[in-house]
Amino acid sequence: MNDTYKTLAFPSEEILFKEKNSKFFGYAFPVTTEEEIKKHLEELRKQHPTAGHFCYAFQLGTGTIQFRANDDGEPSNSAGAPIYGQIQSFGVTNILVVVVRFFGGVKLGVGGLISAYKTAAQMVLEASEIIEKTIDIHYLISFDYKNMNRVMRVIKEKNITIIAQKMEENCKIEIAVRKKNADASFELFSSIFEIEIKRK
User: Fold this and answer.
1) In angstroms, rounded to a whole number, what is the distance separating the alpha carbons of residues 61 and 143?
2) Tell me: the pLDDT tens digits for 149-196?
3) What does the alpha-carbon distance between residue 179 and residue 187 come to, in Å, rounded to a whole number?
4) Helices 179-190 and 148-157: crossing angle, nearest 10°?
5) Closest by alpha carbon to 117, among 89, 92, 93, 85?
6) Is the separation of the CB atoms in 57 and 80 below 8 Å?
7) What pTM was computed for the model?
8) CA angle (46, 100, 37) in 5-degree steps
């Protein structure tokens, strides 16, 4: 069972690719929501107020994949698609790649544009730190305070990550378990008397 995926460790450095006086600035960001994507695009538009095109592609998710490629006014499929092609060839997800173009006065033609956007996307991904992460399943465990030690012992023994916890009379702990261990962990907690576990 594959329960890992590749993504970026952190946002890339800016890269620059030049073609016939046109400048193509490449950026890559690790993202998990469309809100984050919007924010990055807005920031880049502020950073480059005179740029002609902000072409991008993103991919979100590990099981169900969500993606989009945007040509931002360039000829159809000449910008977003080649950028997305690079995301696929590097095998990364939860990522946004943006290529900002400043027109240099010489038309590149569709073939030239495809090549330039592909190269800029490839360069920025090569310059990025790509890491492997595990696909985690989140569970919510609910129990009375008196059972705290039993729950904590299992969490410690199995080296389970705690995402959030609320320790009162009725305790709640959110845990993240690697996908391949998820069923076993679920069974383990559900077999403990007076403890409720459900998928978040």
Assistant:
1) 31
2) 999 999 999 999 999 999 888 899 999 999 999 999 999 999 988 999
3) 14
4) 150
5) 85
6) yes
7) 0.83
8) 65
